[in-house]
Amino acid sequence: MTLLSSAWTVTPFGVGRRPESDLELAQGDVSGRHAEFRYESDGWIVVDHQSRNGTFVNGQRIADRSPVRIGDVIHFATRGYEVVPGAAGSGERMDPTVHTESISDVQGLVDLLHVIKDQRTFPHFQPVVDL
Fold it and tell me: Is 74 helix (H, G, I), strand (E, B) or coil?
């Protein structure tokens, strides 16, 4: 799923399993009060609230806080999101949820997104012959 930067109209913008969270993630490995986005003088940051399964930015677990930029991949436990620009009320595109099965998959997902984004793949065609 994508996180639209314009959706963070409230600061702090809470993320967690609890229904009162601004972004509720009803998933067992996400803490009740997992993390939050805040706007500070130098831009947006994500703050981890000592969650049990961690908050990751581009595959790196954050100890406390980390800056957030357009294009970053953020994981709350094993639930992954890409931060994309968006204007509130403009009919933003929502992508299917990107979900990994384990924390070890986080870096692989980030690497794959960079390969696709940087167009480092090349198609090769092989003829199919039926004798």
Answer: strand
Cα(97)–Cα(102) distance, integer angstroms = 15
pLDDT digits (tens, 9 = 90+) for 35-77: 999 988 888 899 999 998 999 998 889 999 999 988 888 989 8
Q: Kindly report the pTM of this predicted structure.
A: 0.62
Whether cis (ω within 30° of 0) applies to the bond prior to 123 is no
Distance of alpha carbon 79 from alpha carbon 101, whole angstroms: 9
List, in sequence order, every residue forming a beta bridge with 23; answer none if it has no partner.
Answer: 15
Burial of residue 18 (CB within 10 Å: 0-12, 13-18, 19+) is middle
Structural domains in the chain?
2-117 (2.60.200.20)
Distance between CA atoms of 127 and 33, rounded to whole angstroms?
54
For residues 43 and 102, give the distance between their C-alpha atoms in angstroms, rounded to a whole number. 30
Q: How big is the chain by its Cα radius of gyration, in Å?
A: 17
